[in-house]
Write a structure and sequence with these properties.
Elements lengths: L7 H30 L1 H11 L1 E6 L6 E2 L5 E13 L12 H14 L3 H9 L7 H8 L3 H11 L10 H9 L7 E7 L1 H8 L6 E10 L3 H8 L1 E2 L5 E3 H5 L1 H5 L3 E7 L5 E9 L7 E2 L4 H18 L3 E8 L5 E7 L12 H4 L2 H4 L9 H11 L18 E2 L8 E2 L11 H7 L2 H11 L1 H10 L26 H8 L8 H12 L3 E2 L14 E2 L3 H16 L15 E8 L9 E9 L6 E8 L13 H19 L8 H7 L2
Parallel strand pairs: 2-10
Antiparallel strand pairs: 1-8, 2-3, 3-4, 3-5, 6-7, 8-9, 11-12, 11-19, 13-14, 15-16, 17-18, 18-19
């Protein structure tokens, strides 16, 4: 106890007290410095921090067809949002607040007295009637709406808890949607009232004038105006533009006290001119929709290419949807099958195999192939297959030449040729013509197809490749291959944009070979024993049908019907591919689901309309025309 009352303890206590007093003095000095010496400076700095820049949306560029018809446009809409000041009564400002605001006004180059008066008039409950008139809304209806959302004081009989919940609906920022998607002139009338805490958010709604016709190609944008699919996504940066900046004065709760004007104007996005011809796109879409309805196919697509330039003039898909109705969107209807679906091309690939055979020099167009086996049947058994290769066509010569093999679409004939030359020349020809590789389009999620490569090709793989199985292509790739044959072997890069200059292209196959096969394909349409449904009155047409059995799980017995060709045959202008997936099989009509029965008529109608609209003169003499119709 004696040690506790000694001199050491009072000395330590004095040090503690001294340190406490010193800390208190420092705090007092700092408070004096903040409250008096730096008061005005800090208040001005705080006021500067209340100035904020808000982004202003930039109008998105238009998408137009090759002749300027609008395919995607942006319409201006304005959303008005309100903060709590709209529910409050005006209150007088304190002297220090007026002084800070006056200094801020000087910094911003505004009249100080007028600026302070406007801020002092904040709280706009008394101006609801003016607001209602500007909005075109009955005053009583607006009052009921606003009082139900966030009154500034409790209503009669309302508990504190219920009042707090309703006020919180407005939030601490400009969160209450006072008016949505107003026309610009209506929004301007509201803003001209200069009611504090009402903020205009300018937006642009994307509108597609020909919605269903171009839905899968043009694509769509999200709620913020950014491309999500199709060309809207592919050219999002080009179309999007640069946002502007709106400067605002906000209080500590984020409420807008004053609109300080635009400090950076938005820069509109650039327009995009497509290679698509809206007339031809509409034609292709209508004929494809009619074919789907008649054949009960699950989907279909049409690709129309300008042979000389590589421009895609029409790219239609069915089923489709209206992109202007967000509720109507579904992934199946929005799918661009022509670019996103890999398909086995079936017999439409046989002309490419024939090109490979002619290029080896081992075969000439007049050479003949025996189709009969030892038992006298049109069958061919090859290693690696459990069942023989058979011909679908009935009749025709048993020893056809190469042109007749294409006319009859003989699987046995093309298989024997393939076994003679081997798979590699056929694969190389297909690769030259763009199969198994990306196109020049760069379309989002575009497929590359599938071109098999084996170190050692078996007989089964070789024959499958020759007549269109075991490989996959897109409809666009097939269209480019036929366009190249039509263009004397000169491949032009495909494009969805209108070209000011025609690209030079690349000579991928010999001109003479291309002309030879072109003549053979003309005979397929005009020299067949059966009247081809792909014919176009007044014009020579070249092309090949295809029917591919589907090997997908659950698709046994289902087929895919195709037709690919070009016209006029002697001086081709346009290449066209038609694909119909799973057309209905009709009892008693064995070939009702074949490419020559369901895809060829679509080819005929679309090609006929194209030649007429593009004013291509007929190239078939009247005598020939009369004979062809018999």
């Amino acid at each position: 106890m004696k040690g506790f009352t000694g001199t050491a303890f009072p000395a330590r206590l004095r040090w503690v007290v001294a340190l406490f007093v010193l800390a208190l003095l420092v705090l007092v000095v700092e408070l004096f410095n903040v409250q008096w010496l730096q008061r005005d400076e800090l208040r001005l700095e705080a006021s500067k921090q209340a100035v904020r820049d808000r982004l202003i949306a930039a109008p998105r560029g238009m998408i137009v067809d090759r002749d300027g018809a609008p395919l995607a446009v942006s319409t201006t809409q304005v959303t008005l949002q309100a903060g709590r000041l709209l529910w409050e009564e005006p209150r007088p400002l304190k002297r220090d607040e007026k002084r800070s605001l006056s200094k801020l006004a000087e910094q911003l180059g505004l009249d100080a007295d007028e600026f302070v008066k406007r801020i002092e008039a904040q709280g706009s409950r008394a101006r609801w009637e003016e607001l209602a008139a500007a909005l075109g809304e009955p005053p009583d209806a607006l009052r009921r709406r606003l009082e139900n959302v966030g009154p500034a004081k409790p209503m009669e009989g309302e508990t504190d808890k219920a009042f707090a919940e309703r006020v919180n609906k407005v939030g601490t920022r400009n969160a209450y949607p006072l008016a949505l998607r107003l026309p610009p002139e209506r929004a301007a009338a509201v803003l001209s009232l200069k009611i504090p805490d009402i903020v205009a958010m300018e937006q642009y709604r994307r509108y597609y004038p020909y919605g269903e016709t171009t839905a899968q190609l043009i694509g769509r944008v999200d709620h913020n105006g950014h491309g999500q699919e199709g060309l809207e996504k592919m050219f999002d940066n080009w179309l999007g533009g640069t946002p502007g900046k709106q400067r605002e004065l906000r209080d500590g709760n984020g409420r807008v006290l004053e609109d300080l004007g635009i400090v950076q104007s938005p820069q509109a996005g650039k327009d995009l001119r497509l290679s698509i011809d809206l007339r031809l796109q509409n034609l292709a879409n209508l004929e494809l929709a009619r074919a789907l309805e008649q054949s009960k196919a699950t989907w279909g697509c049409v690709v129309l290419v300008d042979v000389g330039s590589g421009e895609i003039l029409a790219l239609a898909n069915q089923p489709t949807y209206n992109p202007n109705d967000r509720k109507a969107y579904n992934p199946r209807a929005a799918r661009n099958h022509a670019l996103l679906d890999n398909i086995e091309p079936g017999s439409t690939i046989k002309p490419l195999s024939m090109l490979a055979a002619l290029q080896t020099g081992r075969w000439k167009p007049q050479d003949q192939v025996s189709l009969l086996n030892a038992a006298g049947r049109r069958e061919l058994m090859v290693r690696g297959r459990k069942s023989p290769i058979k011909d679908v066509a009935i009749g025709g010569p048993n020893e056809p030449n190469l042109t007749q093999i294409l006319i009859e679409s003989s699987n046995v004939g093309i298989s024997k040729i393939a076994l003679d030359i081997g798979a590699e020349p056929i694969r190389e020809m297909m690769q030259r013509l763009g199969l198994g590789q990306g196109s020049s389009l760069g379309f989002p999620a575009e497929q590359f197809g599938k071109l098999p490569a084996h170190k050692r090709w078996g007989e089964s793989e070789t024959t499958n490749l020759a007549y269109g199985y075991g490989l996959e292509v897109t409809a666009v790739q097939l269209a480019q291959a036929y366009a190249t044959i039509a263009n004397d072997g000169l491949m032009k890069p495909l494009t969805l944009l209108r070209q000011s200059e025609i690209p030079q292209g690349e000579q991928v196959i010999d001109k003479t070979l291309a002309k030879t096969v072109r003549g053979m394909l003309q005979q397929v349409v005009h020299g067949s024993r059966m009247r081809s449904l792909a014919r176009v009155e007044g014009y020579r047409v070249a092309g090949k049908s295809g029917t591919a059995d589907k090997n997908e799980p659950g698709k046994k017995g289902k087929t895919r019907a195709l037709f690919a060709g070009f016209a006029p045959a002697d001086a081709p202008r346009f290449a066209l591919v038609v694909v119909l997936d799973e057309p209905e099989k009709i009892p008693g009509k064995r070939t009702a689901h074949y490419g020559g029965a369901v895809a060829a008529p679509v080819f005929s109608k679309v090609m006929e309309g194209t030649l007429r609209l593009m004013q291509v003169p007929p190239d078939m003499p009247a005598a020939r025309l009369a004979g062809a119709s018999n």
